[in-house]
Amino acid sequence: MAKLIVLTLLGMGLALFKNHQFSYQTRLNALREVQPIELPNCNLVKGIETGSEDLEILPNGLAFISSGLQYPGIKSFNPNNPGKILLMDLNEEDPTVLELGITGSKFDLSSFNPHGISTFTDEDNAVYLLVVNHPDAKSTVELFKFQEEEKSLLHLKTIRHKLLPNLNDIVAVGPEHFYATNDHYFLDPYLRSWEMYLGLAWSYVVYYSPSEVRVVAEGLDFANGINISPDGKYVYVAELLAHKIHVYEKHANWTLTPLKSLDFNTLVDNISVDPETGDLWVGCHPNGMKVFFYDSENPPASEVLQIQNILTEEPKVTQVYAENGTVLQGSTVASVYKGKLLIGTVFHKALYCEL
């Protein structure tokens, strides 16, 4: 009788393992290969070799780029050096990048590990850059003021909070006010790995202000990119391992109400919003297995989607760019400026194309 119980439990455990293994592979889109879609006149951006995980383009064409991310379980081509923020002027004929100097006596450059970024411009046209940072595998938000003439960032403040434990991306709604995604619930690396493998969908979105911090959306399977509509009425959240983008209505008290969701056959990462048209531009991973289990002989592909009229009953989704990893590996973000497309990656290069 005891042997029968043991065998039954073993059988149930094996069935459960196989079920989760299938689910895990499905969530990572492990079998997908891309058919290339090329754009005219694409060039790799000089000076970016170790990632361009997130980027933000100002209305004047200056682009901030976070580079050098070191994230648990993800490949890094420069694991022993801190990350940096790069500046690129998209008005130039052949734009290159410049590393922005960082000033501020209390900021530790040696542990700088930038992830998602967002800008906020105040009434006096001062530009603030908010950066998700992972110093020593922790999560903070670093607040900088952009000093354009000096081509530098002045560090103003480090933000920490118990509801910001596993930050991924951020969208600023004020100099010290933002929505942010936590891509995991657990802090412990072992528990994080099981959380992801089992698909617990416990990640969430937080609203932060100096006077109030609260969870505003939850139940997400690896909450990732986040952005806001040009009119400030809607917040967009990418749910990486569910292959979804969620649209939330934003209220005057900063709470969010789910409005709709869109499904995709790809892992949606960072979301950029065209300030003129309201279109969403999304950097995607066609096959997440190749990102989390890197093989230089079979590298992760890149894909860019454009979503038009997302608030209507029939949004238009266009696959604008797709490449199998021979040129660009692991795309995470894409943004447009005056007919040009800038594509960033989690640990690889960056590409600049004409549309």
TrEMBL record:
The active site is at residue 115. Its EC number is 3.1.1.2. Residues 1-15 form the signal peptide. One of its GO terms (cellular component) is spherical high-density lipoprotein particle. One of its GO terms (molecular function) is phospholipid binding. Glycans are attached at residues 253, 270, 324. Ca(2+) 2 binds at residues 54, 117, 169. Pfam families: Arylesterase. Belongs to the paraoxonase family. This is Paraoxonase. It comes from Papio anubis. The gene is PON1.
